Amino acid sequence: MTLDRWIALILLGICIIYGYTAWFTMDASLAPFMRRNPIWPSSFPKVLSVLGILACLIILSGLEKGGEKIGEIDHRRLGDYFYGQALLLLGLMVLYALCLRPVGFLVSTSAFLIMGSFLLGERKWHIMIPVAFVATGSVWYLVQEVLGIFLRPLPAFMGV
């Protein structure tokens, strides 16, 4: 079995555990007035678990490749892959999570998107910066104003 199928098998186990938690344990602890709502706090995890299980089953069955053998991972050439880029991106994600509260959502998310896209090879600054700002502002507006969930937009020292 190839490496992508092993990873899909591991992710399938994680998705099944996540789905079990979403379908059975999360719903059991709901307050009685919440049980009448059409959307529960477990609705999104349920959808994610089902989609994850379907994606893993597609990879395990080999349907995503069609009839061609493309993209096979060569185990003899594992040193040729971009480990440094992947580790830097993971480090950037950790830094983003640590900076989210003190720096604020707008600044930290915009910086993460710009630095992450630069790290992945994008060099068109005139496209990268406006897209990061528009995406960050749109997500903040949807979460803050539409959903009504407070999300600190600016750094903590600014008092917002």
Automatic annotation (TrEMBL):
Keyword Ion transport: no
Membrane found in the keyword field: yes
Domain of life where this protein originates: Bacteria
InterPro entries recorded: DUF1468
Segments passing through the bilayer: 7-26, 38-60, 81-98, 104-120, 127-151
Pfam family, one: TctB
Keywords: Membrane, Transmembrane, Transmembrane helix
Domain DUF1468: 6-151
Protein name: Putative tricarboxylic transport membrane protein
